[in-house]
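Homework help board

Subject: predicted structure for assignment chain

Our instructor gave us this sequence and asked us to write out the predicted structure in token form, then describe one feature. I got the tokens but I'm not sure how to describe them. Can anyone check?
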Amino acid sequence: MFNNSSINTFSVANTSPLHIIITVMNVILILLITVGNSFTIMAITRFRNLRHQSSVMIGALAMADVSMGVAYTPVKLFRTHVPYLFRLEMPCLIAMYIGHLAALAAIIFLSLLSLERFYAIQFPFHYHAHATVKVAVIVNVAVFIFIASALVPLFAGAAMWYDGVSCYAPTLYPSLYTRFIVAVAAIPLFLGFVGFIRVCVAEFRFRKQVFDQSVASLRKQESIRSKLIITAYVVSLCFWVPHMLYYLYDTVSKADQNVYLFRIVTLLDVGSSAVNCFLYAWKNSKFKTAYRELWGLKPSTEAIRPFTTNTVSLSHPL
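My token output:
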């Protein structure tokens, strides 16, 4: 009996062609996420003219994206292909905590990225007087501590565990708590969307106005940052919304998990974390040049040199 149990526990499940294809795509995305977001973090910490409040928010999102690649996705693959292991309570609860922590961090830090731009556009004088890199770091650390604390019940007794229960939050936890988790993601996402609309309006008006040269230079810096955030936010929102709607539906209906549908929506989650570095390089020449230097490619005429005082250029701001 012991030997049979061991074989069942560690045997590979879900080996159909579609499952294998989705798994291979996940592995590719893990590599893209880890490499791309690690280079984003290195670029922000190494190059002085990428150190801005917006860049701190981008760095926090990159760290959350790395967790999506190195923690969330491997655990998800183990749950798919070694499901018997997660019929045990402790592995299941650990998987629940890791998965929700990485996913909520990615969603909330994305929303903070939009809200930071809203703050800069809506209250420019207050923003430039009080918003510093240090303040941005403190805000991000505080938000991460809140997320980690809010998810403690996932691991500390909220689960309605019994033998044979599905290791899936909407069926494993009380509806009140899973709706709280949805709210923790949905409220910042909604506020971020409101901020996104305001930033889009400001960017549209900027293109229609004429300024003197000094004002135009400052506004151009804000415009470039805003366009970067707008692009990242729209693309990430398109990736994340299907999973949030599916999670909400299962929370309300207590429906059993559809394995294929769940794998597809979680693949989209991971895709969001993989594309961000490409968006930064596409929409911002400073990030593009920083990536080139970090890869050891020949620097362009816009090359950024670390630890110099004359690297800030208004013609190519962040």
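Reply (TA_rk): Your tokens look well-formed. For the description, you could write something like this. The mean pLDDT is 82. That's the kind of observation they're looking for.
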